[in-house]
Every structure is written in structure tokens, then in C-alpha cells.
């Protein structure tokens, strides 16, 4: 009896060990997981005031541990909760973009075009920028599983013209996509990323000379534009072993006259006021507004907090992002935009609600139609 029990324990131990080895092998052999920082890149990370105890830290205390009760609640909600309207019952259409017109960008107007989720094309002072250009089908390291896109792309990666710069907020799969970066490498002049993220890009074939890594509050000049990496309240990681090993950031983009704020992912915190005081007012704020839950509200804002963050930033026009493309949380897919527009109306905040692919031109009337209601079941 004792011998049988020992054999069972031995078999279980070997099984767990093999699973760990297999997981590590998969991570090291599969390029989509990215790479760890080494050498000079790692030395730069260690010198960051935001890197302590072997990992990057949030700007304020942020508990990301759901605890036993929270974990059970999250699992049971996913397994047994109502799944009504987590996504539309058919693919959301997008306004198609003309690559020829985009290629002839003029230095006349600032154009912000939502490509879905948190991906944007920004035409500013004659330059074309992409923000978090996740243009793949799944927010996952695998092509056969994981959250699948439920909205059309307004333009394909192949159709995109030359891009002056790509800005990345952090390395999660719904913001940094292996296939998208591989496709964009040849047509992009430069990549701007938070500390450590450059290791992923280099593994994917982007030359080190095309990558600039910034810590919070650091700035870079690029062809007449200024990019500043600013704090956010979130986390990073592409596998089980690299959590908090690369930095996450929001971005300030400043041109000759117009100024843009891009939140990436973030829970609400007083840092928005600090950014607003240092860099505001902003002509437009692109602020996270979806994939939230009370269980993880420290790292993803609730829609009402999105409006408050816009006010903290001294924004003139709010454009809600991080919704309408992937179902990464348990709320109905229209809840984020319904809640944020209601709060914006209450606080008399100017808000834009473009369709995916519909341009927002600064200085002109912003799109404000409730278009999503056309696709509710």
C-alpha cells in the first residue's frame, strides 16, 4: 500500500516536472512569446527607479492578487455566468481606409483613426504613427485559441503605407502582436517602447538601431515630434515566468500645435493629474474604457473613471478605447461605451464615438453617433 502511494507520488512529480519542462521549452522555442532582457538592456532596467526587488513596480500600491474568493468568483462567473452579449452575433463592420489617400498625408490637419481595440493611426504634422498596432486575429500567442477579433479591420497590414513611428504601451498580447510587428518591421522607420520591450522586437527581427526604449518621464524627439513615456497603473508579461519584467507606459505625443494622450492600459490613479499638470492640456485623450471588472479595477479603469481621468488630464476631447474588438472580460460588449457616454453627458465632457476606421479630425466636429446600438441582439 505504502509502495503504491509512493509510486503515485513519483508519477505525479514526474508529470508536473515534464509539464514545467514542456512549458519552458515551448516559451523558448516559440518566438511569439518574445525574449528576456539581457546585457546592456538589463543593466538599463536595473538602473530604473521603477525597478525594485527584481521587477517593475506600479507608481502606487496595486494589489493584483484576486485571492481565493476572488479567483473562485472569476472562474464561476466565466463557467456559469450569463454570457449574453459578450460580443455581437456577427462581425462588426468597419469603415474601410484608402491606403493611397493615407500615403499622401499632408501637414494640414491632425487625424486620429481608430483601428479597433487600442490600435490607432495618428497623422500628425505630416507624419504617420501607429499606436499599439495589434492587427492580428487573436489576442493570444496561438492562432487556434484565445480571444478572437469580432470587428473588421479598416485596413490590412499589407495595405498600410510607410509608417514613420510605432509606439507600444506594453507587451500584453492585445497590444503587442508578433505577427503585426513582423509585418510592420520593413515599413516602419522607428519603434518607441517602454523599458525591456525592445528585447521582444529584436527577437522578431527589428534592428536594435530602430528601437528606442524609455522609462517613465523620459522624452524622445523624432522628426519634429516629441514622445514622452508617462506612468500607468498596470503590469506586463507574455508568459508565466516574465510577469513585471518589462515596463508598461502611457504616451504623450506632441506636435507643433496639437497634443495627444494615449493611456495604454491603466487602472485609475492620481498619476493622471500629475501628467495633466506637466503636459496638459491635451487636444484629445485616447483612454482605456473596456475589459474591466471590480475584481481587477486596480489595473483596468471602470468607464466612469475614464471620464474622470480625462478631466484630470485637462483633455478637450475624449475618445474611449479598448472596447469593441475583443471580449476579454465578462461585461456585455456595449457596456463600456454606454457607461462612458452617460458619464460624459453628466459631466458635460466632449466625447467622440467614431466607428472603427472613421477618422476624427481635430478642429472639426467629432463623430458622436450611437452606432453600436445598430448591432445589439
Automatic annotation (TrEMBL):
All residue ranges annotated as the Metallo-beta-lactamase domain in the record: 128-323
PROSITE patterns: PROKAR_LIPOPROTEIN
GO molecular function: N-acylphosphatidylethanolamine-specific phospholipase D activity; zinc ion binding
Record-given protein name: MBL fold metallo-hydrolase
Cellular component terms (Gene Ontology): cytoplasm
UniProt-listed Pfam families: Lactamase_B_2 (PF12706)
InterPro entries assigned: Metallo-B-lactamas (IPR001279), NAPE-PLD (IPR024884), RibonucZ/Hydroxyglut_hydro (IPR036866)
Species of origin: Pontibacter cellulosilyticus
Stretches that traverse the bilayer: 7-29
